[in-house]
């Protein structure tokens, strides 16, 4: 199952947002040519490491081919344009304006390939007064409203415990690229895509948007409970916490009966979702009278048996070791040039019974330089000259 087989992508990205996107395209069957500078993608040098290989690089660059070209050289820039001319998609995450200065802007690239889709990923977009600001994930989380909405009730703002801005931009980039490829096939014209981490994070705040745009209310931090629905959050147990997610009168009546307080279902303070949220402290105390004297497993088991959504709070290690994760094959092993086998978490969507995944792990730096250039029609002597001049670099695997 390789729905994108035949699609060719030139990947000019580094670190996380862009590589995350192009790894998904590789999983789905696209040929992804990763063009790296002589020192390689920054992520090659950031730990944790296994046998000298970066885990972050291995996870986000599976299935790609690596060609090393020095884009500081005019000859290197011309070579990159030749590769782009053979591709359907180019993805870059330079700072705004850098691609144009390198002769790799969308208009220049489409001069010889009008169907080319060019996707630019940046922190704040290609236009606007903040476009030139440097954008790390925490910066974008801070400016988007995510940190302001995240944290304990009455406490300080907190960042989400993952590089959400990068991941969101990578996912939206994939959506945009695939949409543009379909459009290009229909019209014969390519597209220029502008994906901003900030825009993506703002788009992923529907609850905050509802409060601000429709209810004219400030977004307030509420910890591990939902700002609009109750009971919907983490509740104390004798050995930790259990998640309880009740939505609607039927589920609330079932919960009230389970915890030995059936009268709560007819209490006017708890008559609706909005009423329950307004009286959350009283309802929490009632629920925790029951949960706090029972272990998490017992609480979750009883709630689930009653048809009430509930869960323990698990670590990633616990989830990946679970029978469900094993059955769903959330972690896969791919052949790797140095590690032998490289564990990866590929794109998660199943097509029927199959889950598309790249056929191999992340590439060696410059491991595919010669093969990519040969496909352009360069001779052995021409390639040797480029390598001798330092414009191209290759790694020969034993």
Return the CATH class of the largest domain: Alpha Beta
CATH architecture tag of the largest domain: 3-Layer(aba) Sandwich
Q: Cα distance, first to last residue? A: 31 Å
The poorly predicted ranges are none
Helical content (DSSP H or I, runs of 4+): 25-40%
Q: What is the overall number of helices? A: 18
Percent of residues in beta strands: 15-25%
Computed structural class:
alpha/beta
> Which superfamily, in CATH terms, is the homologous superfamily of the largest domain?
Crotonobetainyl-coa:carnitine coa-transferase, domain 1
The CATH topology assignment of the largest domain is: Rossmann fold
Keywords: Transferase
Organism: Paracoccus chinensis
Pfam families: CoA_transf_3
GO molecular function, one term: CoA-transferase activity
Quick summary:
This is CoA:oxalate CoA-transferase. InterPro entries: CoA-transferase_III_domain, CoA-Trfase_fam_III, CoA-Trfase_III_dom3_sf, CoA-Trfase_III_dom_1_sf. 39% of the residues lie in helices and 16% in strands.
């Amino acid at each position: 199952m390789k729905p994108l087989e035949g699609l060719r992508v030139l990947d000019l990205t580094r670190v996380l947002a862009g590589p995350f996107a192009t790894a998904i395209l590789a999983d789905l069957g696209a040929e992804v040519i990763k063009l790296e500078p002589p020192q390689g993608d920054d992520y090659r040098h950031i730990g944790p490491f296994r046998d000298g290989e970066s885990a972050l690089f291995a996870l986000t660059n599976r299935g790609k081919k690596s060609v090393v070209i020095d884009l500081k050289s005019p000859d290197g820039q011309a070579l990159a344009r030749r590769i782009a001319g053979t591709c359907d998609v180019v993805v870059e995450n330079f700072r705004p304006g850098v691609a144009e200065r390198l002769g790799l802007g969308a208009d220049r690239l489409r001069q010889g390939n009008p169907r080319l889709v060019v996707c630019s990923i940046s922190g704040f977009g290609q236009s606007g007064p903040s476009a030139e600001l440097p954008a790390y994930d925490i910066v974008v989380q801070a400016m988007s409203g995510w940190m302001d909405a995240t944290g304990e009730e009455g406490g300080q703002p907190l960042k989400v415990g993952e590089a959400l801005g990068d991941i969101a931009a990578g996912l939206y980039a994939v959506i945009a690229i695939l949409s543009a490829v379909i459009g290009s096939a229909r019209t014969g014209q390519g597209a220029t895509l502008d994906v901003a981490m900030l825009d993506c994070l703002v788009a992923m705040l529907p609850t905050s948007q509802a409060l601000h745009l429709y209810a004219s209310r400030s977004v307030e931090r509420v910890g591990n409970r939902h700002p609009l629905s109750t009971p919907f959050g983490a509740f104390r147990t004798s050995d930790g916490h259990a998640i309880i997610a009740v939505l609607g009168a039927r589920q609330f009546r079932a919960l009230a009966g389970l915890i030995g307080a059936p009268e709560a279902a007819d209490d006017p303070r708890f008559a609706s979702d909005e009423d329950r949220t307004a009286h959350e402290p009283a309802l929490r105390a009632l629920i925790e009278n029951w949960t706090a004297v029972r272990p998490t497993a017992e609480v979750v088991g009883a709630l689930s048996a009653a048809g009430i959504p509930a869960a323990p709070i698990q670590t990633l290690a616990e989830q990946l070791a679970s029978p469900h994760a094993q059955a769903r094959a959330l972690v896969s092993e791919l052949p790797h040039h140095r590690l032998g086998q490289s564990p990866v978490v590929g794109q998660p969507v199943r097509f029927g019974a199959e889950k598309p995944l790249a056929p191999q792990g992340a590439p060696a730096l410059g491991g595919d330089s010669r093969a990519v250039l040969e496909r352009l029609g360069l001779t052995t002597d021409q390639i040797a000259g480029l390598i001798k001049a330092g414009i191209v670099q290759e790694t020969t695997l034993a």
